[in-house]
Task: structure prediction
Amino acid sequence: MRRACLLLARVVTLGLGWLSAWLAPCANAHADPGYYVVTAYDNEGQRSVDLRYWSVKRSGRREKIWPELGLGYGVNSRWYTELLYSTIGPSNWDIVPSNLSWQNEILLTQGEWPVDVAMHAMLVREIGYEPHYSLEYGPVLQTDVGRTQLNANLFFERSFDSEEPTPIQLKYQWQVRHRWQHWMDFGVQGFGEVGAWDHWGDASSQSHRAGPALFGRVDLGQGSKQSLLYQAAVLVGRAYNQRARMFTLRLQYAF
Result:
């Protein structure tokens, strides 16, 4: 098992390097990875095609959109991994390559504690003429109170854009999801960035936003392991230190 994991990691790393080098002449854009709450689930053996879309509309600025495509796999009961290809642009007809990301979630507990704990890690490679990398990592916490699921994540982000060390940034995610029907749940999500992890910025330089969210799952055929999962949220608050409105949508075909 250990050899298989090391081999998979090597293949993914080489694949990221090859794909980013091939796409490098296509663009010189910069965008953050999409904002989706990371959750802790056992997805052993599950494969998925992940379509993501999110937008940001800041006051006095044109709207920016980030369509993303991901391929995910549950390696075992504790490890889920996904490759993501992100684009950026002012409209669906005017987008360019933006990022390549390798996202991983490792479950540390599986029900033996009142709160399930996982570790999140995502390596992001900005597509462009010069390589720019960042690493996001941190704990994922999840618990249930009756039919309501609670999530709280604390992530650190380290950028490797220059030779000079840059401060590690701190960001957070939270979610309240109430299970209503099999095909639809409802809740609230929130995200924020506070600045350097050991020296938070003042209130005007921080970003915080929250809003309502819908979730659901549609099984594709009786007895079939195929399903369509979706979630959507509308967030208001601050992004990039300015007042902004965000919309996020995620469609995941699992099989």
